[in-house]
Amino acid sequence: MNSIWEKIQTPRPNTTPNTNPGPPVSWNDPSNPDDPQAGYGYIPNDTTKEETFFYHSDHLGSTSYITDDKANITQYDAYLPYGELLVDEHSSSEEMPYKFNGKQFDEETGLYYYGARYMNPVSSIWYGVDRLAEKYSQLSLFSYCAGNPIKYVDAMNVIRQELNMQWKNFGQRLNYKSIIPNEKATSSFLPFDRSSLNSIKMGMNPSPFSQYIEINVRK
């Protein structure tokens, strides 16, 4: 198995020390504007039209489907628990970079960028120490979501966030009439809050989503 450090690519400088920098690095051939359009800049040779795409996310904020402006599916992604791509299908030449948790995926390094740190979905760890590590001394400094990426999200890569707020928003947007027939939505949210549902019977404080389900669905 390859070392996790082999995933990191060292940037190549385009100049030498103590000299003036050379031209900027270009990853693709520059477009040549042949017919500038007043008010719109120009349309490059390699672009026939401007396209609009829409992201459709799952309960973790991960992009599952991408559709175009005609509601055609142009991309489908499925992930392993820590964000490694399991399925990446395209019907378009466009490659959308925002994938697991809605974070940008760097094709060159294979890492996700969360703002303050990078996460390796293959080794399931952060590259860098959590800047709030003192608050969670009992946890690994490099562990993603305390080893539970199905229940927790780490939107800002500094503290894990329970999905209760998302569950609450889910309940506020959808009433029980829409939850009951929506098998996918119910099965996605309900299992993660099973312990909280049990806490209702024990007189403990359940999560907002559990309260909503108990009041509107299970009555």
Automatic annotation (TrEMBL):
Low complexity: compositionally biased ranges: 10-19
Superkingdom, taxonomy of origin: Bacteria
Transmembrane segments: none
Region (Disordered): 1-43
PANTHER family: PROTEIN RHSA-RELATED (PTHR32305:SF15), PTHR32305
Protein name stated in the entry: Uncharacterized conserved protein
Organism: Prevotella pallens
